[in-house]
């Protein structure tokens, strides 16, 4: 049985429908993520799970027990859920140790002290218990918030954009550390964020949210290589769509040559039946286009971005279409220059309607 199940939940603020028929499930110990653009309803879903919003349709179950439905509403304090917010929400007048102990009010003083010491150790802040929040960096404050949320041993931890206030380097480091801490504690967690690097660094499974629904719930690898629709393909990673003509149920032709892969079934079947080439959109990621001096196809460099180890080139094909290509940065070509390219596509992704 999954630890958390959302089944067809919906929520509106007045007449503004924000979450529409959203479903997902998370196994014990897994880290899930809701990833989507700002305003798509991520925080609303998190608040519904925590019990701060009353949902209007569907069911939220924790360990098989319904905690939210139009008829049932278990109050937040009885859900055994911890939360970590973007702004840390620490009590400024309490020490780090007292902040962490806040959720442990009812236990004996010695048990509390040892639990706080254990948590400080877990989040890498041993010895900082006597400090006040303002004496700590943003990253350290977020560790305290994590320790405080972990203190009462909740069944589920919810994170709302927890690293957004940190600078990029720290964000990446802390997100990996938080993943380690969660995995060590064996706790089940849901992160919501609009930042895919953060989502990829922390989560086992990610749901891409758009217009109040989950467009695809999958591993980071599959979201990138096997996006379920054009929104997911656009939102996750970089890439362009080229026009393609379906040749048969397994092959599609684009300006750079022929690709074999899974053609949408309705389209492939239609082509086999009518013999006409359907027009489709073929996704090409920057790693699908390889620079090769000996390649027959020449493409013009129209833009370049230095990435350290690589350049991200924007290239114009003879057809006029543009593609992106990641090229080792010792291949330093000028804008306007023509360079040889070839396809190296492992996962062919095709959508209807070019
Ligand atoms: P996200 O976290 O993905 O940015 P939110 O869940 O915060 O999205 O918000 C989704 C939509 O619901 C937005 O259009 C937002 O303006 C609206 N919204 C959020 N909270 C409220 C509220 N308390 N009352 C009315 N509208 C709200
Ligand atoms: Mg939000």
Shape: globular
Could you tell me the radius of gyration in angstroms?
Answer: 25 Å
Beta-strand percent range: 25-35%
- The CATH homologous superfamily of the largest domain corresponds to P-loop containing nucleotide triphosphate hydrolases
What would the average pLDDT be, to the nearest integer?
Answer: 91
Please explain how this structure is put together.
There is one protein chain. The protein has helices at 42-50, 96-101, 109-122, 138-150, 168-185, 196-202, 220-225, 230-235, 265-274; strands at residues 4-13, 16-26, 31-35, 57-62, 65-68, 81-84, 156-160, 188-193, 205-210, 213-218, 240-248, 251-254, 257-260, 279-284, 289-291, 297-306, 310-316, 322-328, 338-343, 349-352. It is 25% helix and 35% strand. It is of the alpha+beta class and 354 residues long. The chain contains 9 helices and 20 strands. Helix 3 crosses helix 4 (138-150) and helix 5 (168-185) packs parallel to helix 6 (196-202). The longest helix is centred in the middle third of the chain and has 18 residues, at 168-185. It folds into 2 domains: 4-233, 3-Layer(aba) Sandwich (Rossmann fold); 238-352, Nucleic acid-binding proteins (OB fold (Dihydrolipoamide Acetyltransferase, E2P)). The mean pLDDT is 91. Strands 6-7-8-3-9-10 form a 6-stranded mixed β-sheet, with helices on both faces. A 5-stranded antiparallel β-sheet has the order 13-12-11-14-20. A 5-stranded antiparallel β-sheet has the order 15-19-16-17-18, with no helix packed on it. The chain binds adenosine-5'-diphosphate (ADP) and magnesium ion. The site of magnesium ion has 2 residues, from helix 1.
